[in-house]
């Protein structure tokens, strides 16, 4: 299809049939699929590389239309304004992300190799960024001593990180590329070890790692572009990175400082949040995703895992224990609950994405509150649809209290499945709501931050004060700065609750902890 697209676009640009036929076009995959660690929920990240006369506009018109005309394609969502522009599709039930990169070459044939840095010369920034994903994955695979061992170990680490709720770039932990680079580094250090040993070394080494010493798969290289590569000696911003994990392909950068900061819209099943305006080149303070809290939490997890693996090795326990589910909702006495609400599925997708992308910043601000030791963000938001019969119910739902009778009204089939389906669903629901006056469907997405408060001083008198009004107000102000924000159709509520007030949906089959007896000194 990509070759056909190049041909059609070449003809549209007035080229002769024979030249258009020779223009070529090639695809490269990247992401988990290319690394060989994809699972049932993964997409296929695909980069479409074209010759220089084909434009990004061609891609977002001609190729987009070609996709839309295929009946195998159920969702085709262009996100042309993103930091890394993408067409998200669902093709024969498989999500595929199509990225676009235009080379400076008159023809792109099948022998084209993206690893040559000279390729990047005279390209648009977006083309360089789009090629980056593929260049990085290929370089990782090239730099590990044994790809088979690497894949096995990485699958294990990914599963572990997901179960322990520390797999998420957006929330200030690490994402797929960073985990892959960490495992790759351990593989390099132990080139002859089996995957099990790599996993064991992984936890020990990372627990002891002297951050902010960077993790590098090879020395950072200079290259032909006028762009900066990661260099804490030269750039003060780079010194702010707490856990620098540096991408091996030129231009090398700190993985967590990449585009994730600008994430905005999340689709329900197809991922890749498309951020709207391109960011200013270096946003001070916001370009490092890992915070003091998330770093501390990951470090604790490395330690716990290292101890479990030690026991596995001597036969005292099994691998199953390593993959035990996190205990986030059992761990803290107080939680911050962030409720993003709106009246339509379509709007909610963008609104929750906006709020989600800012949670990390709230965590950063909470860390400055003197009595707070740690602010632990949970990696995913909880989505709810509530049918409300009156304004009171709407208000309660939007503040995070879903009354039982409201919850009972909402049936499972109301859940939005796909963008298109969600839109249709929206129209139906709104029509129904309009018929029954006063009835409204409220979409909410709730995020949680666990609060670890400093233990009370023995000689302190009176109640301990925990004032988080500054960070929370600042956060709501910040999310409301979103250019599409509208006070009448969107809500944002941040409040702090006791663990006993956690709604039952967060426990997801787990036992709710029994109410704790307050220990009072006699
Ligand atoms: P899955 O198995 O697909 O869940 P993955 O590691 O392939 O895991 P993604 O498909 O989300 O994860 O991302 C693949 C690559 O695309 C990783 C990164 O180089 C790039 N990428 C992901 N999200 C963004 C984003 N918001 N902006 C820019 N690049 C992104
Ligand atoms: Mn992917
Ligand atoms: Mn993807």
UniProtKB/TrEMBL annotation:
Mg(2+) 2 binds at residues 43, 45, 97. ATP binds at residues 30-32, 43-45, 97, 158, 167, 176-177. It is found in: Nucleus. Residues 149-257, 285-325 form the Poly(A) polymerase central domain. Its main location: nucleus. One of its GO terms (cellular component) is nucleus. Keywords: ATP-binding, Magnesium, Manganese, Membrane, Metal-binding, mRNA processing, Nucleotide-binding, Nucleus, RNA-binding, Transferase, Transmembrane, Transmembrane helix. It catalyses: RNA(n) + ATP = RNA(n)-3'-adenine ribonucleotide + diphosphate. Its EC number is 2.7.7.19. It is an enzyme of class 2 (transferase). The chain crosses the membrane at residues 165-184. Residues 327-514 form the Poly(A) polymerase RNA-binding domain. Its cofactor is Mg(2+); Mn(2+). Binds 2 magnesium ions. Also active with manganese. One of its GO terms (biological process) is mRNA processing. Pfam families: PAP_central, PAP_NTPase, PAP_RNA-bind. Mg(2+) 1 binds at residues 43, 45. Polymerase that creates the 3'-poly(A) tail of mRNA's. PANTHER family: POLY A POLYMERASE (PTHR10682), POLYNUCLEOTIDE ADENYLYLTRANSFERASE (PTHR10682:SF10). Belongs to the poly(A) polymerase family. This is Poly(A) polymerase. It comes from Jaminaea rosea.
């Amino acid at each position: 299809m990509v070759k056909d697209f190049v041909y059609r676009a070449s003809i549209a640009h007035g080229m002769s049939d024979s030249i258009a036929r020779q223009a070529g076009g090639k695809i490269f995959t990247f992401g988990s699929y290319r690394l060989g660690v994809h699972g049932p929920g993964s997409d296929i990240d695909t980069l479409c590389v074209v010759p220089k006369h084909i434009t990004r506009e061609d891609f977002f018109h001609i190729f987009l239309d070609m996709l839309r005309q295929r009946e195998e394609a159920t969702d085709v969502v262009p996100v042309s304004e993103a930091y890394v522009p993408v067409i998200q599709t669902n093709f024969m039930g498989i999500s595929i992300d199509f990225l676009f990169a235009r080379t400076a070459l008159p023809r792109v044939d099948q022998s084209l190799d993206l690893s040559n840095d000279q390729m990047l010369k005279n390209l648009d920034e977006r083309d360089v960024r789009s090629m980056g994903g593929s260049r990085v994955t290929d370089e990782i695979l090239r730099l590990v001593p044994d790809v088979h061992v690497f894949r096995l170990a990485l699958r294990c680490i990914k599963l572990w990180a997901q179960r322990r709720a520390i797999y998420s770039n957006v929330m200030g932990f690490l994402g797929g590329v960073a985990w892959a680079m960490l495992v790759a580094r351990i593989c390099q250090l132990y080139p002859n070890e089996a995957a099990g040993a790599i996993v064991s070394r992984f936890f020990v080494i990372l627990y002891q790692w002297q951050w902010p010493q960077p993790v590098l798969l090879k020395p950072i290289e200079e290259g032909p572009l006028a762009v900066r590569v990661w260099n804490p000696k030269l750039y003060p911003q780079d010194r702010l990175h707490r856990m620098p994990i540096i991408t091996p392909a030129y231009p090398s950068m700190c993985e967590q400082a990449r585009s994730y900061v600008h994430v905005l819209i999340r689709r329900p099943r197809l991922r890749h949040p498309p951020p709207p305006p391109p960011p200013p080149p270096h946003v001070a303070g916001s370009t490092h995703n890992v915070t003091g809290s998330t770093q501390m939490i990951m470090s604790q997890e490395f330690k716990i895992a290292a101890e479990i693996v030690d026991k596995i090795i001597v036969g005292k326990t099994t691998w199953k224990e390593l993959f035990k589910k996190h205990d986030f909702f059992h761990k803290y006495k107080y939680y911050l609950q962030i409720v993003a609400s709106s009246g339509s599925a379509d709007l909610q997708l963008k609104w929750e994405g906006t709020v989600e992308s800012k949670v990390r910043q709230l965590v950063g601000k909470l860390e400055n509150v003197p009595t707070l030791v740690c602010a632990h963000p949970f990696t995913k938001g909880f989505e709810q649809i509530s049918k409300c019969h009156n304004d009171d119910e709407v208000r309660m739902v939007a503040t995070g209290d879903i009354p039982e009778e409201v919850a009972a009204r909402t049936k499972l089939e109301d859940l939005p499945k796909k963008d298109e389906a969600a839109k249709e669903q929206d129209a139906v629901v709104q029509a129904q709501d309009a018929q029954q006056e006063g009835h409204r469907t409220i979409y909410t997405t709730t995020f949680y931050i666990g609060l670890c408060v400093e233990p009370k001083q023995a000689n302190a008198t009176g109640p301990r004060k925990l004032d988080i009004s500054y960070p929370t107000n600042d956060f709501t102000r910040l999310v409301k700065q979103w250019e599409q924000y509208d006070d009448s159709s969107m809500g944002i509520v941040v409040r702090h609750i006791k663990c006993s007030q956690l709604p039952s949906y967060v426990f997801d089959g787990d036992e709710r902890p029994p109410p704790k007896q307050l220990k009072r000194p006699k």
